[in-house]
Amino acid sequence: MKKYRAAVIGLGFIGPLHLDALMRVPQAEIAAVCDADPAALRLHAERLGVPAVADWHAVIDDPSIDVIHNCLPPGLHDAVNRAALLQGKHLYCEKPLSLTAASARQMAELAEKQGVRAALNHQYRMNAAVREMRAQVQKGMAGRVLAVTGCYLQESAVRASDWSSRMENTGISRTLSDIGTHWADTACCVLGQPIARVFADLHIHHPVRTDSEGKAHRMDTEDTGFILMRFEDGTPGQVTVSKAASGHKNDLRLSVWGDSYSLAWEQEQPDRLRRGIQGVGFETVYMNPKTCQAETRPFITAPMGHVMGWPDALRNAVQAFYDSLADPKAPSPCATLRDGFAHMAFVEACVQSSRENRWVEVEAW
């Protein structure tokens, strides 16, 4: 089995979780960690027994590194991604791919020109229950899809005093680009088609926020969004996204209403689906390799009832990416950089729609 030497750049919230996922992937070898924070860098380098590199340029320039995991904040993605791709490295990037659709398109085109494998981390699509929902919808088992609905709710920005540096340098959007793109990716993956049109109503609840030292920060990006949409085939949809929903920790929900039955998935109960049948009611469908669709089985990593959660979905995503490295042109279930362009085109259309109070077409590839 070929081993790929991987470097993780960025050791904040998500970087250490990439390290944990990589340790569960047999084709991956962690070769280096990189961060500007000396304490975080030393902690993870010593824990893993790998080189600690403070300058990401040195990681990119290292010819022994095969794969770059870009776990830096979104505003720093473009520079690292471009450098990695130009060096011919395989790339696994955190979302959003970029701060604009135009730059995301450029990055996707560069990856294709370089002939390397590049993917975007949208691990929710890698939950076994989401794969099962996709399989049943794609096979027409739920019937004709009548509508799609859902939400992604968190509580990190409820009060005016809820401020962090993560609210800066997010481009024209904050909540939509951070968590709204996750919902959009999951929905588009299940339906197998993109979002074509949107009508959005975005809200900034606290135009001025204060940090722990009392310093004021003016906000120009949304806390909450209500979005109507049409998918490419005309299927209607609706989603509410917010970082100001008290009590909601990481509450992503997706429902698909078919004319045979409906299917619903909740990220906080990730190992099951809820199936609704007209005249009968609801039943819980647990992820069972004996009863699920064949294409779902590789994503079931624990016995039924042993909950597969957030880290398992990330492991599934990283595993699928490394599986794909043997043939960069082979199909992969991972989100692509073209998907990353679609996500940012969706965000930009929502911002324009809210500003102009009208339906807006989402830019297509």
- Describe the main β-sheet briefly: 9 strands, mixed
CATH topology of the largest domain: Dihydrodipicolinate Reductase, domain 2
The overall number of domains is: 2
CATH architecture of the largest domain: 2-Layer Sandwich
Question: How far is the first residue's CA from the last residue's CA?
Answer: 36 Å
Q: Main sheet: which strands, in order across?
A: 16-15-14-13-7-12-11-8-18
Residue-averaged pLDDT: 96
Per DSSP, what share of the residues sits in E-state strands of 2 or more residues? 25-35%
N-to-C SSE string, H for helix and E for strand: EHEHEHEHEHEHEHEEEEEEEEEHEHE
Task: Characterise the protein shown here.
The protein folds into 2 domains: 120 residues, Rossmann fold (3-Layer(aba) Sandwich), CATH 3.40.50; 208 residues, Dihydrodipicolinate Reductase, domain 2 (2-Layer Sandwich). The longest helix is centred in the C-terminal third of the chain and has 20 residues. The chain has 9 helices and 18 strands. It has 365 residues and is α/β, with parallel strands linked by helices. The two termini are 36 Å apart. Strand 9 and strand 10 form a beta hairpin. Helices cover 31% and strands 27% of the residues. A 9-stranded mixed beta sheet has the order 16-15-14-13-7-12-11-8-18. A 7-stranded mixed beta sheet has the order 3-2-1-4-5-6-17, with helices on both faces. It has a two-stranded antiparallel sheet with strand order 9-10. The mean pLDDT is 96.
